[in-house]
Every structure is written in structure tokens, then in C-alpha cells.
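Design review, sub-item: ligand-bound model
Attendees: FS, YL, KQ
YL presented the inputs for the iron/sulfur cluster complex:
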Amino acid sequence: MNEETGVSHLEMNRTKARPHDGTIARQHERTKARMHELGIYLHIPFCVRKCYYCDFNSGPLSQTARRDYLEALRQEIIHSPWRGFEAKTVFFGGGTPSELSIAELGTLVQDLRQTFRVKEKAEWSIECNPGTATRTFFAALGQMGFNRISLGVQSFHDHHLKALGRVHDSAEAKSAYRWLREAGCDNVNLDLIFGLPRQTLQEWEADVSEALTLSPEHLSLYNLTIEPGTEFGNRHARGELREVDEDLSADMYELAMDRTRAAGYSQYEISNYSRPGRQCAHNLIYWRNEPYLGFGVSAASFIDGLRWTNTGNLREYARTAASGRVSRASEEALEDREALGEEIMLRLRTSEGISLSSLSTHYHFDVASLFSQTLELLSTHDFITQAGDRVQLTRQGRLMADEVCMRFLAG
Ligand code: SF4
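KQ shared the predicted structure:
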């Protein structure tokens, strides 16, 4: 999982998949001449155990399943039809990539470097969970080329970590952070979640303060969502777990926005805050609707309007990757109007917002006219602000971001 994006790398499909009658190979030919820089995502689905809130394709795996998976992942990379393409970012997400051994990680890094032209100054990110990575592991990351580490802290309160089913405690999170700094890593993200069951505003404030005291380059601060099919989802369905009050959640979000701004961070996306120049280049690819390739079970790819998702079934993935063509759970080509709505939805999440003229040029629609009623309505309710050509979410709009952004899908 990439907890930073909020939207999973694995399920970037936001509209119902429908069959596409072209082939990916044909699309590849059409794209090849136009595309220059990709984002590459690798999914590592192993975790020590399943967290109670997690709906990502991840969990504990046997040694055999794990070995088969890594071999399949290697095959998928090596046989990629996009071999030779330039990559500007590489992101190892999960799951728990820090569950990999240094040797396993090194092999995958080498495969990627031999298959793609990874830019010299590419951003190499990896998600690590406290309690799974050692000081030696962190020291090895830099040598392999990783220059951005994302640490899944989630909370600095042990009772909340326990209630979430996390394997680490607060002391381990702080040790992991210290080891990263000692290893020379100068670009660290911390993931934290608010809106936890029975979490108070004071506890959340203490979490944010603790994070700011550590002074990472980047913070991802998320509101917990209770997803069906998870342990929390099941408890919720049985009436044993209540969602946090909406007003309290909003207060927590506002506190996060205010405290990070006061500490010199810029909120460059709804849930993401960075020091100047330290935005996550990989996640910006998703929000700017730029091309990316995902490798691994359930991984999503998007190139030139064509989007597909690898099978979510581990055995099927391993079997089909070994034969050089991974089976896909979905594949779709978006019509221009649909693609436009999605791009607006994604870009509006960022502080850059959208440029009406750029989108009009790209999609050959008069975007201002097409969405005139939506823009007017959202502006009247103070959810967006429009300065000339540029439309951005207001603070109020950020609080209602999902609802606001969805308006553009519907037209
Ligand atoms: S560490 Fe927990 S939240 Fe993260 S992918 Fe694994 S099970 Fe999910």
C-alpha cells in the first residue's frame, strides 16, 4: 500500500472497468514515441500480520508463497513491454517492503535498473514499517539508491497502535526514525492516521506535535476510513465499532492543517504536507494524471488513457507472470470526457489545482463552459476559488474534498 496517496496504487480505478477491445501491445506502439518518463511502482504484499483497518492486498505469506511471488515479480519486470523506457520515480510499496531481505531488495533494484532507464536523479522511495526493519537494513537502503523513506508510524500512542493491530509500538517508531537519520537519510515521510476509534483531539494534537518535533521532510496525515471486509469493517457491521464523529474528524483535520503550516510545511495535497521542494514526486505522478507502471499483484498501471490492474489473486499472478503475461483484473480505455473528469478530480486534490486552459487544450473541450454550472455552484459554496484560469480547493473545499472532486466526474 502507499499510505501516502490515500487512494491506493493498487486501485487507481475509480470508474467501473469496462472491456477494451484494443490490445496493450497496440497501445504500447501508439504511446512509445510520445512517452518519456514513467513512475514505477512495485507491490510487496507481505506483512507480519494484517492490521485491523487495512483493505490492501497484503498479509502474512508462507516462505514458499513469498519466494514464488518474488520470482514472479522479477519475471514481470524483466519481460515488461515497456522495457527501455525512462523512469523518473520508483516506489516500493506494500504490504511491507521492509520485510524483504537486503539481498531480495537488491535483486529487484538491479532488475529495474537493467530493464528501465532510471534517471540518475530519480526519486527512489520505499515504505518501511517500524518493528520490521533493522538499523542494518536502513543503512543498506541508501547504498541501493533509495533516497526517500516513508515510515508507517500511524500513531505515537501505544494503545491506539494496539487497537489498530500494528506490530510496532511508539518507541520502535522513534528508534526507526533515529536509525534512518543515522544512516544519512535526509528525506523521510511519516504516515499518521487520525479519526481512530475513541481517539481524542488532545491525543491527535500530541501525535502531530511529536511528529513535528522529529521534523521529517514530509508528513502524510490521513483520516481513518472503515472499509468493508476488514476486521474494523466487520466490527462496524456487528455494531461493535462506531465511526468517529464527523465534527471531531473535521477538527482533527483542521488542527493538522494549522499545525503543519505554522511549522513551515506546505499542504501540497489534501493529506500531504512537505518542506519546500520535498513533495513526493511519485505521488505527484498520480495526482497529475501522468503515466505509471505498476508491478506485482493488484498493481495498477496507466499509460496514455489506458488503465489496467493486475490480478489480485496471488497464485494466478505467480502463474501468469512466469509465462511473461500477467493476467489482469481490469483493463479500460477512458473516453476523453471521462478522462477529463478524472484528471480534474485528481489534480484538484493538489494545491496546484487545475488550469482550465491547459485542460481545454489537452482534451479539446471548452472546460470552463462544460463545467460552468459546477464551477459556479462550488464557488458559491466557497469550496473552490477561481483566479483567472486556475481553480483550486479552498480550506472549506479540502474538508469536503471527496464530494467536491466527484462533481467533475458527473459533469
Ligand atoms: S502494515 Fe498493516 S496497514 Fe500496512 S499493508 Fe500491512 S496490513 Fe496493511
